[in-house]
Amino acid sequence: MVLDILHTDEGKKAVEEAIGNEEAQKKMILEAPEVKKAVQESLLSEDNKKKLEELMGDPEFIKEYAKQLEEEHKKWLKDLMKDPEYRTSMQEILKDPEMEKQFLELTKSKEFRQQTMTVMKEAIQSPYFRLELLQLMSEVAKDSLGGEKKEGEGGEGGQESEGQGGGGSEDSGGG
C-alpha cells in the first residue's frame, strides 16, 4: 500500500521534498555507513596525510572544527573529572617536582605578573570586594592594636583610655 502511494504524483512530490530538505540530506548522509568508511579511509590514508596537515594549518578550518568538537570535549572532560583514576593521575602530575618548577617559572614571567595585576585591579573595582577588604583591614588593625593594649594596658579598659589618650596626643603634637 505504501508503495502504491509513493508511485502517485503526490507521493513522488513528497519524497522529492523530503530529499530536497537540507536537514534530511545531512541526516541521510551522516548516517550512511559508506560515509564512515570513507572518512576513516581518507583520514588514515598516507596520501591524504599532507592534505590533512594543510587543512589543520588553516585558521578558519580549525576554528570551525573546534566549534564542532567543543561540546563533546566538555562532556569528556566532565566525565574524566569524575573518574577517580584520572583525578589521581592529575594529582600525581601536579605534585611532580619538575611540574612544580615549571609552574613557578611561569608565575615569575612578566606576562603572568601583568595578568595578576589586571585581575587585582578588576577585583578592587568591585564594591563587594572593597567591603570585604575593608572589613579584613579593620580586623587586622583591631587585632594588632588589641595585642599591644593587652600587654601594656591590660584589656578592654586599656583600649578605651588609649583611644582617648591617642586623640589628645595628636592634638598636643599638632599645636
Tell me what portion of residues adopts beta-strand conformation. under 5%
Rounded radius of gyration (Å)? 35 Å
H/I helix tally: 11
How many strands? 0
Order of helices and strands: HHHHHHHHHHH
Q: How many structural units, i.e. domains?
A: 3
Average pLDDT score? 77
Largest sheet: none
Distance between the termini: 111 Å
Shape, principal axes of CA atoms = elongated
Structural class: mainly alpha
Helix content: over 70%
Low-confidence stretches: 154-175
Strand and helix map with partners:
Blueprint: H1 2-7, H2 9-20, H3 22-31, H4 33-44, H5 49-57, H6 59-82, H7 84-95, H8 97-107, H9 110-125, H10 127-152, H11 156-174
Helix pairs in contact: 10-11
Protein name: Spore germination protein D
Biased composition (Gly residues): 155-175
Region (Disordered): 144-175
Structure commentary:
Residues 28-140 form the Spore germination GerD central core domain. Residues 155-175 have a biased composition (Gly residues). The chain has 175 residues and is mainly alpha-helical. The chain folds into three domains: 9-57, no CATH class; 60-95, no CATH class; 109-147. It has helices at 2-7, 9-20, 22-31, 33-44, 49-57, 59-82, 84-95, 97-107, 110-125, 127-152, 156-174. The longest helix has 26 residues, at 127-152. The termini are far apart. The model is unreliable at 154-175 (pLDDT under 50).
Concise structural overview:
This protein has 175 residues and is mostly helical. The protein has helices at 2-7, 9-20, 22-31, 33-44, 49-57, 59-82, 84-95, 97-107, 110-125, 127-152, 156-174. Residues 155-175 have a biased composition (Gly residues).
